[in-house]
Amino acid sequence: MRRTQALFFAATQCARLHASRRLYSSPPIVKIANGTFYRQHPSSKGDNAPSNPPLFPDLTLSLPSFSTPNQHWAILSPSSDIRTAFLQILRGQLLCFPPTARSFPYLLNPAIAEERPRLRFPERAIEYVGFDVERKAFGGAYLSARYESLREDTDFTVQRYLTGIVTMNPGEEELKAKSVDEEDMTRVMRDLELERFIDKPVSMLSNGQSRRARIAKALLSRPEMLCLDAPFIGLDPIVTRHISKVLHRLAEANAPRIVLSLRPQDEIPDWITHLVYAGEDGKVEKMGPKEEVLGHSQTYGQAESIGDSTRSSVNTERGEIGRPPSGREHSTRSSDAATLSRDGHQDTDDSVPEIGEAIVEMQGVRIAYGQNSVLGDWQQDVDGSTQSGLHWNVHRNQRWGIFGANGSGKTTLLSLVTSDHPQTYSAPVKLFQRSRLPEPGVPGITIFEIQSRMGHASPEVHALFPKRLRLRTILESAWADTPITKPRLDDEARKRVEACLRWFEAELRPGFSGDGSTSLEWASDTLFGEVSFSAQRVLLFLRATIRNPDIVILDEAFSGMDDLVRDKCLLFLSHGQGMELVFSDSGLKPVKWEGEVVVPGLQEHQALLCVSHSKHEVPGCIREWVCLPEPGTGPPRFGRFDGPVELDAGRWNEVWNEKH
Q1: 232: Cβ–Cβ under 8 A, 6 or more apart, which residues?
Q2: Which conformational region is residue 555 in: left (phi greater than 0), alpha (psi within -120 to 50 degrees), or beta?
Q3: Is residue 124 packed enough to be buried (19+ CB in 10 Å), middle (13-18) or exposed (0-12)?
Q4: Residue 552 pairs with which residues in a beta bridge?
Q5: How far apart are CA 104 and CA 107, in angstroms?
Q6: Alpha-helix runs per DSSP H in 54-148
Q7: Hey, is 390 helix, strand or coil?
Q8: Which one, of 231, 230, 204, lies nearest residue 216 by Cα?
Q9: 81, 187, 238, 562: which is deepest, by most CB within 10 A?
Q10: What three-state secondary structure class fits 637?
């Protein structure tokens, strides 16, 4: 893939832009001195309330407006809520005690008042872009809307989205107020590789493309600082490196200053110079130059490295930081047990599974919008002969990983499986050995039958899921036609729902304290929109798997989950309640659960399709894989893993054609 050099706000241009400001002393852009933060105002009796704990108590932090050499900061935490809260605090959000502990000295600079007075307010000078629910920024009413070729008036283009002009009939005043310098627009579009999507409706962008569009929009507002919350989640390795280089150049030019939030398993960009490491309890464990923070950790009172400066990454897979899953700490097996992945799979798998009947059959699929082909525009070798389009079958008891660069058609492929894509009717696709349209003697398969036999979790499902549903109702809706219709529950279904709620109580229940209560009233009293983003992801994952449907589809389903929660879900996917994660001297280990198993893991009658750009989110049970090509670069590549990706980096490198 050809990558253009980042030119937006080059250092020479920025030197002129900030010349007048450097005549003054350069105070910090954010200064915090012994501040403690709360989500709600703490009452005299509620200072220690579990639902409103103090965040970053006695925090002292100074982010320079200019420094030599430049300082580039990132917040590192296993908790998505804590990472987001830290970035919100930098923007002046959340309550600060004492109120004078937080200030923004640089924004009081006379040069700011003269040149851009609107930036005197922190919420305007410091932009925040979060990537929790990808598509909520673009709206949308239903999943198949992004694939329909008919454009409505409200399907605004990428160009209109970037300018903020998204009304149907904008007036002259709005057009003038939201005008963007054409040169700036061109550079941002080129840097983030959005030129070819400029006239495309934003509802039709892939997850990775929509992410770049959101970053571009924030840059066009020309903030003094840009806070990016988990910017690399869901991006393929090539795009991740490119976006990181673009952000580096912007940060070096201080236009804008960049602050990132990262998960412990994320690769820390080389250009990051300073880190804040915070635990799940909202307390800063270490802060300062990157090398010092990477050499420090505290896991249950034991000093242990959380990183390797030679790799510029933090690995918590062998020494997790945080509380045990389910709030319990267990003994573990002897250390001489066979090496297992986090989800209980051996390093090498030489078994030959018995493959069942076909669930998905694609015989020459090609999806195009006019002349623009998005899937299947290639010649593929099929049993020694060359055939046009995508030829791909999924059978029972197969575990498939679907990989590829952003925009290669992964989500489009899954939309054919779920039948959300309108072209499913005309494409050579069979689901459960039947076509959508009737054939002689064979009725077409209905959307309701398809959905009743599938479990599906994805960012799109998350973005459109009703936020006013109760937690119990969400799991029960796995037995309903839609999330808001009455489920068809029997005793077995109710038993499974309660088993899942108990198994994941620590992850789902707000303010969980591990008091030993057996009541599940909290699940009937708590709304989906009231729990953390990570907990929402867990609920949708459970909804997709709780029934053991014929096919489970996980499209970036683990992205955004806290690390320990993700590992627990991966183990639950393969083994259900049959195994649990426990802490030992050597870190987390999966061990056999001795209690009653109500919800099993994947069964032989099931197939699994999983899309992920992170090797940490690839289930250990994945054996078959397909890597879709970028348009015009040839056919897809197929392969087979001989064990979990987690335990052999070569398996992951093989997917992306990278050397060790």
Answers
A1: 240, 243, 244, 262, 266, 267
A2: beta
A3: middle
A4: 455, 608
A5: 6
A6: 80-90, 110-115, 122-125
A7: strand
A8: 231
A9: 562
A10: strand
Q: State the burial class of residue 184 (Cβ atoms within 10 Å of its Cβ: 0-12, 13-18, 19+).
A: middle
What sign does the CA torsion over 455, 456, 462, 466 have? negative
Task: Report yes or no: 191 and 248 within 8 Å, Cβ to Cβ.
Answer: no
Look at strands 624-628 and 399-404 and give their pairing.
parallel
Contact 650, 376 (CB under 8 A): no
> What average pLDDT score do residues 373-378 get?
91
Q: Tell me the DSSP string of 215-265.
A: HHHHHHT--SEEEEESTTTT--HHHHHHHHHHHHHHHHTTTTEEEEEE-TT
Distance CA 653, CA 660 (A): 7
- Distance in angstroms (rounded) separating the CA atoms of residues 241 and 238: 5
Q: Tokens 């989205």 correspond to what residue?
A: 161
CA distance linking residue 205 with residue 113, whole number of Å: 38
Provide the 10 A C-beta neighbour count for residue 527. Answer: 14
Q: Three-state secondary structure along 484-509? A: CCCCCCCHHHHHHHHHHHHHCHHHHC
**Residues 546, 475: Cα–Cα separation, whole Å:** 8
CA distance 330 to 324: 9
Q: How far apart are CA 411 and CA 413, in angstroms?
A: 5
Q: Are 247 and 9 in contact (CB under 8 A)?
A: no
Q: How far apart are the C-alpha atoms of 98 and 85, rounded to whole Å?
A: 17
Q: Is residue 546 classed exposed, middle or buried when 0-12, 13-18 and 19+ CB atoms within 10 A define those classes?
A: buried
Q: Are 16 and 9 in contact (CB under 8 A)?
A: no
Q: Count of CB atoms within 10 A of residue 520's CB?
A: 16
pLDDT (mean) for 605-630: 94
State pLDDT tens for residues 327-344: 333 333 333 345 889 899
What's the maximum distance between 2 C-alpha atoms anywhere in the chain? 83
Domains, the chain, in order of start with CATH, read: 11-141+155-303 (3.40.50.300), 358-655 (3.40.50.300)
The encoded tokens of residue 381 equal 């070798």
Q: What angle do CA 568, 618, 280 make, to 5 degrees?
A: 40
SS3 content of the chain, % helix, strand, coil (to 5): 35, 20, 45
Q: What is the pTM of this model?
A: 0.78
Residue 571, helix vs strand vs coil: helix
- Across the range 458-465, mean pLDDT stands at 88
Closest Cα to residue 554, out of 456, 454, 451? 456
What average pLDDT does the chain have? 82
| Residues written for the chain | 660
Which segment, 24-28, 245-249, 328-332, is predicted with the most confidence on average? Answer: 245-249
pLDDT band at 40 (very low <50, low <70, confident <90, very high): confident
Residues 6+ apart with CB under 8 A from 610: 399, 400, 401, 402, 554, 555, 557, 618, 619, 622
Quick one: tokens of 91? 């923007």
SS3 sequence, 182-211? HHHHHHHHHHCCCHHHCCCEHHHCCHHHHH
Structure tokens at 188: 């941002």
Geometric angle at alpha carbon 494, from 490 and 498, rounded to 5°: 170
Across 11-27, b (16+ Cβ under 10 Å) vs e yields eeebeeebeebeeeeeb
Query: pLDDT of 95-125, one tens digit each?
Result: 999 999 999 999 988 888 788 888 889 999 9
With beta carbons less than 8 A apart as the criterion, state whether 29 and 63 touch. Answer: yes
